[in-house]
Amino acid sequence: MTTGAWIFVVVIALLVGMVAGFFISRKYMVKYFEENPPISEEMIRTMMAQMGQKPSAKRVRQISQSMRGATKKRK
Predict the structure, then answer these.
(1) Which one of 8, 55, 70, 71 is CB 3.0 to 4.6 Å from 45, fit for a cystine?
(2) pLDDT for 43-57, tens place per residue?
(3) How far is Cα 1 from Cα 14, in angstroms, rounded to an integer?
(4) Which ranges does the record mark as transmembrane (predicted)?
């Protein structure tokens, strides 16, 4: 095999590896964030209390749902 052919094979293998790695890592991170949201309902309650708002269960669920919906829209 000539030197040019080796360089071509290495470049193609590198590109295929990069593309495959990107999609595998993206799928892993989406699954991780679905299972472990970055903010929980307890955190929302704490933040609302710190801002001087009375955290009702309905409002906390609304905020939590809106945050989950925002992450799903980005997919």
Answers:
(1) 55
(2) 888 988 899 888 888
(3) 19
(4) 6-24
* Cα radius of gyration (the chain): 22
Q: How many CA atoms lie within 13 A of 37 on its CB side?
A: 16
Each domain of the chain, given as residue ranges in start order, spans 1-36, 39-75
Q: What is the DSSP letter of 36?
A: S
Helices within 36-74 (DSSP H only): 41-50, 57-73
Centre a 10 Å sphere on the Cβ of residue 59 and count the other Cβ atoms it contains.
14
- Using pLDDT thresholds of 50, 70 and 90, give the confidence band for residue 68: confident
Nearest to 75 by CA among 20, 37, 26: 26
- 39's CB contacts (< 8 A; 6+ apart) are 64, 67
Q: Is the pLDDT of residue 70 over 80?
A: no
